[in-house]
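Record now logged underneath.
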Amino acid sequence: MTPAPVSVVIPTYRRPERLRRCLEALSRSEGVESALEVVVVEDGGPTPEVQALQDLAGQGPAGLELELRILAQPHAGPATARNRGAREARHDLLLFTDDDCAPAPDWVARMRARLEASPGALVGGHARNALRGNPFSAASQELVTFITRWGLTYGPRFFASNNYGLHRADFEALGGFDESFPLAGGEDRDFSDRCEAAGMRFVHAPEALVEHYHQLGPLAFWRQHFAYGRGAYQYRLRRAQRHGAPFRRELQRTLASTRARFYMELVTAPWRSPDAPPRILTGLLLAACQVPNLLGFVSERRRSRRGA
C-alpha cells in the first residue's frame, strides 16, 4: 500500500532566518516517496525576506521535491495562520510545526506512520531544546515537555502545536484553532482541550523529533511566560463558556485539581531529563517562571473585565 501523502503547515512571523532552517530540514526528509507539500503562512506579510525563501522549492539534497507554497495574511496570530494553512493544504494528513523548529529527517515518516495507525487521534511528537548552552531556552522547553508528560498520566492532556498532526476531517470537525487567541500561548491548550472533549485519542510519538531553536534571554523569558499567563486566562475563560459555568467556578476547579506534587515534580524535572542541563539553573528557572505566568494571568483578567 502506498503511504498517504501529508501536508506540513508552518505559521511564521518575522523570523525568516529560522524559517529557512526549518524548510532546509524538511527538504532533507527521508521516507517520503517523491514530494512533500509544505504550506507556510506568513502572519503580517508579505515581506521580501520570507517570499525569497520560495527558492527552496524543488528538489532538495535528499532527492525530495519540496512543494512549497508561501502565503501571507494580515497580522492575526498563529491560530489564524495555522487555520489558513490547513485550509490551503491539499492532503488529508496534516502535520504542524513552527518556524523555529528543525524536524529530524525521519519526522514526516514517523508522524505519518502514527497517524495511519491511529485514525481519529491527535499525534504529538517530541520537541528538544537545540540551544544546549541557553538555560532560558532549556527551561521553557522543559516546561512544555513536563506538562505534556504530566497530562498523559494525570490529565488534562496536552500536545504543543510545534509538533503534532491529525486527519483533516478531525481538524475540520473541531473547527480548527480558536482564532480569538491573538498570541502564541493558550491556543494549543485550548485545541487540545477540545480534542479531549470530543473523545479523540492522544497518541504520544516521542520518536518523532523536532529540534527547537527558541533563543531566549532573561527579558524574552519573562515576556514569554507573561504571555503564557495571558493565554492561560483566555483558555480558562473559554473552558468556562463551553461548559456553561461561571468563570469563578472554573478557576476554583482548576485550583482544586492543582497538586503540590505537580510543582515538586516540575522543579525537579531537569534531573530526570537528558535535555535540560544545567540542571540546577533550569530547575530554578522553572520555579521562577511561575511569577510572570501568574502576573500575566491576573493582567489579562483585569484587561478582559475592563473591556467587558
User: Anything to note?
Assistant: The CA atoms of residues 160 and 203 lie 13 Å apart.
